[in-house]
Amino acid sequence: MRVGLFLSTSLLAMIAPALAQAEGTELDPVVVVADRTPQPLSKVAVTVTVLDQETIKASQAIDLSDLLQTTPGIALSRAGGPGQPTSLFIRGADSAQTLVLIDGVPINDPSQPSAGFDFANLLTSDISRVEILRGAHSTLWGSQAIGGVVDIITTPPSKAPQVDLTAEVGARETRNLVAGASGTSGPFSLRLAGGYYTTAGIPAFDERLGGVGADGTRDTSFSGRATYQLSPTASLELRGYYVDAWVAFDGYDTPTGQFGNDHEFAKTQQYIVYSGLNLENLDGRLKSQLSIQYADTDHRLFDPGPGRVNLNTIETYYGLGSTTRLEYHGDLKLSPESQLVFGASHERSNIVTDSPAEESAPAPLRAHMSLDSAYGQAERTFFHALTLTGGVRYDHSDSYGGHVTGETAAVLSLNDGATRIRTSFGQGFKVPALYQQFSPYGPLAYQQPALKPEQSNSWEFGVEQHFWSNRGMVSATYFGRATRDLIQFYYGNPQAPYGLYDNVGRASAEGLELQGQLKPLAGLTLTANYTFDRARDDTNHVALARRPKSVGNFEASYVWPTKFTTTLAARLSGSAPDQGYDSNFNPIAITLKAYTVVDLRASYPIGSRLEVFGRIENLFNQHYETAYLYGSPGYGAFAGLRARF
């Protein structure tokens, strides 16, 4: 904590003298994820980061997770190079405690043991905007919003006909191609896009420990959005997203259990569909959305046998998960100073999963669960400066019964919005995963009481100051979270000698997020963020695995008079705990070393329709691990072209 406070004080001390020069405010960006309705950021009382299309393009990131980890409060863990299993931890919360949406559809995989989401195959391809909500916010967003919400929005149709293309090549036989076309004709608008990405990758098993043979990946994706304007107050909307991915990986061999160059591979198919009716009533004061949402994931693991002989390939695991949701969402403007957000939904999740290679495995697990929800949130602004928000939600599951969550928040906007003071308290919950509840290791298999939802209380207090004619900004946010009834696998029940899932865990997090931006010269932009996060397993009194106490990012970008743009970016991570196993498969404590990775990027526009770009990743070839025994990519150079017609 002393290191965090020292860096916090130092950052504030460097920028704070400019506060006296504050002369105005900048226009508020509009965000949706915080209140599930478009809202100026100055009225949002919780912590939100917005990554718009220009930011995504400037980052040159292919993996969305690589971009997300440059934002405050997020740590990443990846079991190797591109395409390998990837977890994101928001403010120290478990990866499965983050709700992920694409175009409004939750895409967490119900077939996984904890019903989490693997970011391995999520690319930036046709993404135009990402909003990241940090903290527990289940009142509006429901289950899994304990750590936060990642809301991903694909590119909407353009008014004029347009075709765009991005092509990129680089190190490790990397090829990336993204193409899209969109336009509007009368009441109908449409956008279709597709992407193809492939790379030879690196050995997932760390080369310094004996890893050999690159573990590559291929990823094909398609997305589409269509809107038909039925009348000035009604429209139909259809959205779709599809990904087909293949990746080779290393790990613990099936069935020997030995870690090493495993040569197995995985196939994943995922698609989502959103169909909605948008209505406006009461002279536009009431906006309603009626939607049907569907998400489906098919994940399979294969072992090709010794020497990668295809004839010996066997399927070692499959998980099929799907979720269907019917939802009504309403937004009522009661007056210029107050509004009400409310809604209701019915959701049904299904899984089929099995490990065919294990002869002792029982028949495939087939299970389902229904969840009915209703929520409401009221907001009121006083004196054009103080905005108060309060909400409540009720959920009822056919698996565990009913559950209530609440949230309250306040934001004070002073000096024409140049100064913002925020505070909030929110509750989060996560329904038991179907595998945890109904598998042979679930409580129902031993006639035990059903699992309860994981629950959390989250709070934060933050100050944000804009200064120097909006050429600078600094903010500081103190946050905390206490989580109870965590579902963990343990061997403490004598009735379950092979282990059991139960609500036996508790965890907490407490920390500080700092952000700063400064434009000291024309064309020069400096940005930085730092997070100190003390995430603890309060059951076993140890730090949570793979979550460093401190992470930070720094970026300096300069647009030269010739419009040539250069950017130097650095990501810093402190040491983090992890867990390994000895030769007898007994757990041992491991410490992942601190590291700093530096990237260099450049871009140059050729007219108004073409742009060339390139980057060097891991400029100094830093060796580091974000998961024990797994490597990370070293130095690599990439170049590409963007075109718009």
Characterization of the model:
With 645 residues, this protein is mostly beta strands. The protein has one domain: TonB-dependent receptor, beta-barrel domain (Maltoporin, Chain A, Beta Barrel), CATH 2.40.170.20. The chain contains 5 helices and 34 strands. The protein has a 22-stranded antiparallel β-barrel. The chain is globular. The termini are far apart. Mean pLDDT is 90; it is low at 1-27.
Describe the SSE topology.
Blueprint: H1 2-15, E1 30-31, E2 39-40, E3 48-51, H2 53-59, H3 64-68, E4 74-78, E5 86-90, E6 98-102, E7 105-106, E8 127-134, H4 138-141, E9 148-154, E10 162-170, E11 174-185, E12 188-202, E13 215-231, E14 234-252, E15 259-281, E16 286-303, E17 314-335, E18 338-354, E19 365-382, E20 386-397, E21 401-414, E22 419-430, H5 434-438, E23 454-467, E24 472-490, E25 500-521, E26 524-537, E27 542-543, E28 550-559, E29 565-573, E30 576-581, E31 587-592, E32 595-606, E33 610-617, E34 636-644
Parallel strand pairs: 6-9
Antiparallel strand pairs: 1-2, 3-8, 4-5, 6-7, 8-9, 10-11, 10-34, 11-12, 12-13, 13-14, 14-15, 15-16, 16-17, 17-18, 18-19, 19-20, 20-21, 21-22, 22-23, 23-24, 24-25, 25-26, 26-27, 26-28, 28-29, 29-32, 30-31, 32-33, 33-34
